[in-house]
Specification:
Layout: H1 2-5, H2 13-37, E1 44-45, H3 47-61, H4 68-74, E2 80-81, H5 87-90, H6 106-127, H7 141-170, H8 174-184, H9 188-193, H10 200-219, H11 225-241, H12 245-249, H13 253-262, H14 267-292, H15 314-318, H16 325-328, H17 331-341, H18 348-366, H19 377-382, H20 387-398, H21 403-425, H22 436-444
Parallel strand pairs: 1-2
Helix pairs in contact: 2-7, 3-4, 3-6, 6-7, 7-8, 7-10, 7-20, 8-20, 10-11, 10-18, 11-14, 17-20
Length: 445
């Protein structure tokens, strides 16, 4: 327990592995329980999840990147839900009639080994006569739960990393409490409990790993190899999972340039880091070319999406009653106050972390569809940076001058979490909210 509470979990591989495996098992059981209690037979839900899982399914069963037959096969599974409209009917196809995916391939690559494990488990269960299902290969509960568990393992890696980061400043079990607050007080709870097959949790983990590497490089720049490799691989993987996140990571470049100038003799280490990052870039373009038969920087734009850099919609993302981050998740305001209170004590990497999170606000506000429905599009996307809120909240509590102030802030945080959970439970009714009165009526009515 001491390794967890003192921000040193990543230095204890055996403890970290145990926490990841057991934590992932717990998250998987909780997620399955939520599906059972809400009467949802389908585990794999929504179009996004179908694209990601379909590409992984294609690599496992067909050995190619053509997801057409995989999406069609998914429509025959009792464990898959497409929502109100069938992806098979409305998916974009090329001139040859092949379904093309507008999403990056990173999450599918992460799902690949776990789907292979699911295939093995299904064969074993069939051999011993335990499994009897009419679901198509790869789309039974066995394979889907294996992939869910693998996704949760990767999420637990991110949560243990964040625990180490927050523990560096709080140095107590407070780190764990604040992380729980962060999950429950933002849209991130949706991807932990309801929709674990989307890329948000993987992006969350990779961002946490990037920040951890930067903090360690800042603390001990004379032994940079392992952390430079971690930074290069995490940033590269982030491009493969969520390409738009890389724009925010440009905030880290001044620190890296300073490191190169100060320690030029480590050029081999820098080259190794760069090779990992550029290798991921090449892989990203290769996957995009395989889908569209042409070089595509942003595959999402092929579906009509894109960015309007000159006309960001900050109100939709931050203050709108039905979708604003500050409205739906007021714990973000407490975290912002924490950064302001502790501004003299914040290290360079954390300032970069905060700057990258703020830049992501601009990126999401420029997205062509930030007001595309009632599911809190902006906060949903920004939840990948919700780890920043845990750090800010820790500053608020650590640097408060009196215990009374800490009690007030913790009580306020509990109220914020309760507010967010109430709105999350009624998230499908947010489209009818046009004022604060409507919002209060939805929660207390």
């Amino acid at each position: 327990m001491d390794s967890i509470t003192q921000g040193r979990l990543l230095q204890k591989p055996s403890a970290m592995l145990a926490v990841i495996l057991l934590g992932a098992l717990l998250l998987t059981l909780v997620s399955l329980s939520v599906h059972v209690l809400t009467g949802q037979n389908a585990l794999l839900r929504g179009w996004d999840a179908q694209y990601y899982y379909g590409l992984s399914h294609s690599m496992v069963y067909d050995g190619d990147l053509d997801i057409t037959n995989d999406i069609e096969m998914a429509s025959r599974s009792t464990r898959v839900s497409f929502g109100e409209a069938s992806l098979v009917q409305y998916a974009k196809r090329n001139a040859q009639g092949r379904i093309t995916s507008p999403y990056a391939a990173g999450l599918s690559l992460l799902q690949y080994p776990w789907l292979q494990m699911g295939v093995l488990f299904r064969k074993i269960s069939t051999f011993i006569g335990v499994s009897a299902t009419s679901d198509p290969p790869g789309y039974s509960v066995i394979e889907i739960v294996c992939v869910m568990y693998g996704s949760n393992c990767f999420l637990m890696l991110g949560l243990t990393t964040l625990c180490d980061i927050v523990g560096m400043y709080s140095g107590s079990v407070l780190a764990i409490v604040l992380i729980i607050f962060t999950i429950l007080g933002t849209n991130f709870v949706q991807f932990v409990l309801v929709s674990p097959f989307l890329s948000h949790t993987s992006s969350f983990t990779l961002i946490a790993l990037c920040i951890y590497a930067l903090i360690k490089l800042n603390e001990n720049p004379k032994q940079p190899l392992s952390y430079l490799l971690l930074l290069g691989s995490s940033a590269g993987a982030l491009l493969l999972v969520r390409p738009q996140q890389v724009l925010s990571c440009l905030v880290f470049l001044p620190f890296l340039i300073h490191l190169v100038v100060k320690f030029p003799s480590y050029w081999k280490y820098y080259a190794a880091m760069a090779s990992l990052a550029f290798g991921a870039i090449a892989l990203h373009f290769w996957f995009a070319y395989a889908q569209f038969d042409q070089v595509v920087v942003n595959p999402y734009s092929s579906g009509g999406g894109g960015f309007d850099w000159m006309h960001p919609k900050f109100s939709v993302l931050l203050t709108q009653w039905k979708s604003g981050l500050f409205v739906l998740h007021p714990i973000s305001i407490l975290a912002l106050i924490g950064f302001l209170v502790a501004w003299r004590h914040i290290s360079g990497p954390i300032w970069m972390f905060l700057g990258a999170a703020v830049l992501q606000v601009y990126v999401i506000a420029c997205w062509s569809s930030p007001d595309s429905g009632a599911d809190s599009f902006g906060p949903r996307l920004w939840s990948e940076w919700s780890s920043c809120l845990a750090v800010g909240f820790s500053y608020l509590l650590v640097y408060s001058r009196t215990n009374l102030a800490r009690i007030i802030f913790v009580s306020t945080g509990i109220c914020c979490v309760g507010w967010s959970l109430s709105l999350f439970r009624m998230r499908h009714s947010l489209s009818g909210v046009h004022s604060f009165g409507d919002l209060l009526g939805l929660v207390f009515g």
